[in-house]
Amino acid sequence: MTLQQQTPNIDELIDTITPLLARQDLITLTGVLTPLSTSEIVEVLERLNLKQRAIIHRLLAKDRALEVFEMLPPALQSDLFTGLQDADVSRLFAELDPDDRMWLLDEVPAVLAARLLRGLPEDERVLTAGLLGYRQGSVGRRMTPEFVTTHVGMTAAESIERVRARLADAETVYTIPVLDHGRRVAGIVSLRDLLGADPDAPVEAFMQPAHTSEATEEAEVAARMCTDLRLLALPIVDSESRLIGMLTIDDAVRILEHEESQDAARQGGAEPLNRPYLSTPVFTIVRSRVVWLLVLAVGATLTVQVLSAFEATLAQVTALALFVPLLIGTGGNTGNQAATTVTRALALGDVRPRDILRVLSRELLTGALLGLLLGAIGFGIAALVFAPDMGLVIGLTLLAVCTVAAAVGGIMPLVARAIRVDPAVFSNPFITTFVDATGLVIYFLIARIVLHL
After folding, report:
1. Where are the domains of the chain?
2. Which residue ranges does UniProt annotate as crossing the membrane (predicted)?
3. Helix (H) or strand (E) holding 340
4. Could you count the other beta carbons within 10 Å of the beta carbon of residue 305?
5. Most Cβ neighbours (<10 Å): which of 3, 56, 182, 312?
6. Are the beta carbons of 373 and 415 closer than 8 angstroms?
7. CATH topology agreement for domains 3-135 and 281-451
């Protein structure tokens, strides 16, 4: 039997589980769930409604229930709380790591968040409250306060003993900060280095330089540093460079996935769902799209106003109307390409707002070259079908529109970052609307000049 044949089909599981839930056949349902892996149960839960998820979660063994809960998106964790008993909710919340609690607290209503915090043991409440003190979006809200450290002057053997003492509660033990007497990070040692070193060797003899990030830094920036440098964990420090937490690689990847999902949604003119599509209520999907559609509809009135202003020009040369979709479509696509490229470069740290003039010059040249190529093709087709002067209008317009669209699309994400707005918000939908209006103005002005209208 092949591996593919051994792996359960999620659709078949849903078809099996749904009737059992409807009949409340909990004994058979438990038998179906028992052999499934944690990831398979998560996939099943993501395709069910709120009530069904709560029933299945209650049937899981205590340890399995926690594993499944930890793997669910925070939005589904919040939903699941409404279907569980208070005792189950308190137990699950208390067993989460402090940084995982923060993802959940950002999703649940404020009243429930306060109740969850009050139900924590004193030591766990102190740890979680410390993270809550940082603003949303900062890495301080995503770091773990449970980690292992060693100190300059300590030996490898003493450091290993410190690791053993924290194995039960530390979230990461593979990257160990070396602190000086002021709790500042003097360097980093790995668990591998400790195990391979002479037991009596001081850790400062083989520690490596440390990369750190301040707790107030944007979580995406710190996460990008962690992944770019291939670190298992990144030390997080306060304004006085004292160690206060660690950003682990799994949390860094989670942050980047979350940010990229947001960017992808906003570039398409919608708000991110933050949960699997099939488990998202239709009303939530509508709400994530309607505001953007209204904003873009208002913006599109600019295009209507431009067409109205040049109505007389269109009446004199009706052929001009035939090329309107081509020109505004090409301009919008050119601007979107530039915006997507620069937004991605911003996320990777390849460009910064101070590079705006360099980006502008590159996009002006890129847009001009694209416009020359497309304009030459447009000139040939329009001249052949209509007349050479009409071909000249189309060719010049494509050159101008591509140049303007690329320049605007390239600098808008940088302007957004400079004013601390999500660059994705300034991307495709707004650029398309802007370029549509300006492209038509350029088109009709060129037509008036060339055709002597």
Report:
1. 3-135, 150-262, 281-451
2. 290-310, 364-386, 392-416, 428-451
3. helix 324-348
4. 12
5. 56
6. no
7. no
Q: What pTM, to 2 d.p., does this model score?
A: 0.69
The whole-angstrom separation of Cα 326 and Cα 314 is 16
CATH topology of domain 150-262: CBS-domain (3.10.580)
Q: What is the pLDDT of residues 396-407, one digit of tens each?
A: 999 999 999 999
Q: Render pLDDT for 119-152 as a digit per residue (tens, 0 to 9).
A: 888 888 888 888 988 998 899 999 999 999 999 9
For the stretch 257-274, pLDDT in tens is: 888 877 777 666 666 777
Q: 435-444 pLDDT, tens per residue?
A: 888 888 898 8
Of the listed ranges 75-89, 283-297, 341-355, 386-400, the least confidently predicted one is 283-297
Q: What is the pLDDT of residue 252?
A: 93
Token code pair at residue 341: 């490229």
Query: How does residue 1 score in pLDDT terms, banded at 50, 70 and 90?
Result: very low
Assigned fold of 281-451: Tetracycline Repressor; domain 2 (1.10.357)
